[in-house]
Amino acid sequence: MIEWILVSFGITFAITHGKIFKTFREKAADLHPLLGDLVCCPLCLGFWTGSLLSLTWKSITGNFLLDGFLSLSSCWLLYAISWALALHDERV
């Protein structure tokens, strides 16, 4: 389970904040504002990452929607922790 959560977080974090995906995020925002929001939001993308992992790799809960919500909450928690520890941001 921890492996699945870390894979989900890694994919989500790389897409939402990685330099390599910056052009992708900008093009997505140009296509449609909601698509731009999706690829910049760890909560939003975390849900879809978990749902797709459930369908393509393995399911943790046996339900792709529940896997999506598991990924969403895990990604947000890990994102908040990493933001607070690495960036020392008081907003988190």
Q: What's the number of extended β-strand segments? A: 0
- Rg, rounded, reads 13 Å
Query: How many structural units, i.e. domains?
Result: 1
The mean pLDDT is 89
What's the main sheet like?
none
Percent of residues in β-strands: under 5%
Q: Which of globular, elongated, flat, extended, rod-shaped describes the shape?
A: globular
Description of the structure:
The protein contains 5 helices and no strands. It has one domain (about 1-85). The mean pLDDT is about 90. The protein has about 90 residues and is an all-alpha fold. It starts with a helix and ends in a 5-residue tail after the last helix. Helix 1 packs across helix 5 (about 65-85) and helix 4 (about 40-55) crosses helix 5. It is globular, with a radius of gyration of 13 Å.
Describe, in short, the structure shown:
With 92 residues, the protein is mostly helical.
Note the main attributes of this structure.
92 residues; mainly alpha; 5 helices; 79% helix
Which helices and strands, and how do they pair?
Elements: H1 2-17, H2 22-31, H3 33-40, H4 42-56, H5 64-87
